[in-house]
């Protein structure tokens, strides 16, 4: 699955820049649902959808900023000063 590619393929060297950013970031874990057997994966998805419907899942929001501060928000993210999401509002 590819997410966020409506603008076309990533620029040359994007993968290396991404890996460099990961090396400079705090520890992280990755999980691929493709490694989970189908019935188990469906059970987890059902549970997650139920949690979302009940409002039990929460997004970590680092900051909410006006859209005109997008450059500043990206600088903060690039500097590794953000934990969670930065929400830009019109």
Concise overview:
By secondary structure, the chain is an alpha+beta fold. The chain is built from three helices and two strands. α3 (70-78) links the parallel β1 and β2.
Low-pLDDT regions: none
Oligomerization state of this entry? single chain
Terminal-residue CA separation: 30 Å
Binned, the helix content reads: 40-55%
Helix and strand sequence: HHEHE
Can you offer a commentary on this structure?
This protein is of the alpha+beta class and 90 residues long. It is 41% helix and 12% strand. The chain has helices spanning 14-24, 38-54, 70-78; strands spanning 61-66, 85-89. It has a two-stranded parallel sheet. The chain starts with 13 loop residues before the first helix and ends with a strand. The model has no long low-confidence stretch (mean pLDDT 81).
Task: Based on the model shown, name its key terms.
two-stranded parallel sheet, 90 residues, alpha+beta
Could you give the topology of this structure?
Layout lengths: L13 H11 L13 H17 L6 E6 L3 H9 L6 E5 L1
Parallel strand pairs: 1-2
């Amino acid at each position: 699955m590819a997410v966020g590619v409506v603008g076309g393929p990533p620029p040359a060297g994007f993968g290396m820049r991404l890996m460099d950013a990961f090396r400079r970031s705090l520890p992280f874990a990755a999980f691929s649902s493709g490694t989970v057997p189908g019935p188990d994966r469906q059970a987890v998805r059902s549970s997650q959808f139920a949690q979302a419907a009940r409002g039990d899942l929460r997004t970590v929001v680092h900051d909410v900023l006006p859209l005109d501060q997008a450059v500043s928000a990206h600088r903060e993210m690039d500097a590794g000063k953000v934990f969670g999401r930065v929400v830009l509002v019109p």
